[in-house]
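dumping these here so i dont lose them again. two proteins, back to back, each one seq then structure tokens. dont judge the mess
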Amino acid sequence: MNPIQILIADDDLEIAKLIKIFLTNEGYQVLTANNGREALDVMAKESVQLIVLDVMMPEMDGLEVVRTVRAEYDGIPILMLSAKAEDMDKIMGLTTGADDYMVKPFNALELLARVKSLLRRSMLLNTQAQPAQDQDEIQIQSLKINKKLHAVTVEERNVNLTSTEFDILYLLASHPRQVFSAEAIFEAVWKDKFMESNNTVMVHISKLRDKLESELGGVKLIQTVWGVGYKIDP
């Protein structure tokens, strides 16, 4: 399972260290850069899913990094940090291409919440942008999912799933390797607006996993990408 990679670009080493501790404790893999050019070098070598980016940095400032990232990479969320609290500074950061903006000093827990929100939003947009492989039957290892019959079997044995569990399984299986946030799953399956405190998806995923693992001899088909969501690798 590959953890989500987050890049912290900030020349203030103490702030970067603090952010790294909070993100690492949440299961993210954290990369760091001390200036704008170093940040772009990391981007060229690593698969980065989100950037926490200071505005004032040596060699290349954060705004120029945002412009370059938006020109060369598609859809990576950017959270900008700045000691400047004026509205025009925030507007400049957001209109340049940042997704969110926080003023230093900041609450680390709030930053963590904003990171998670940006990642969920990014995964939801990716889900909406990529059509499902709308197949009548999907096979993953010994598991067969028949959409027309609304049936799931393992080596001809029926796996008894509820309608909701089937819909979640079909959603993940028809988008192999794609990570779905709880928000994306809820809105796709329940056709309703997701509430932040809603743990419905987690409960259904847990029950679905138990049933599948029991039939698959302990094989963990549904994987958790910590801090982001769930996926199935074929």
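---- next one ----
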Amino acid sequence: MDQNSIVLVVSVSILNDEEVLIIKENKPTAFDKWNFPSGRIEYGEDILNAARREVKEETGFDVKLNNTTGIYNFISSTNDQVILFHFTGEVTGGLLNLEEDEILDSKWIKLNDLMKFDNKEIREASVLKKIVDNLLKENLYSISIYSENLRY
């Protein structure tokens, strides 16, 4: 990837009671790092559909998206500008089936415990911890601000 590119990413915190699902990545730029299920938005893809697709691809779960904690704009460890759309969701179907090539492990963890992870264990730690802080403070917003693809 060219340096100084802009990358659009979706991320989903799958919540179950007081726990959230995290995955351990097996990607060259994030090997052995914990993260929420996430990935790039494909050209022409609706943001909400991208979020559901990424969760399904990485975990095997079908999810209902409930809220958003917001949009996060940052420079990544690979020096790309990332615009990350983060959502909360709940499992509605499917079975845990990790994407073998890209995901090493998964676990359910209390949000407070995730804040205690060492930054070296987490992908883009400052952003992930800001998301968790918003989740703990219940800074949640309606996903109705995201419309399905509009064609003019």
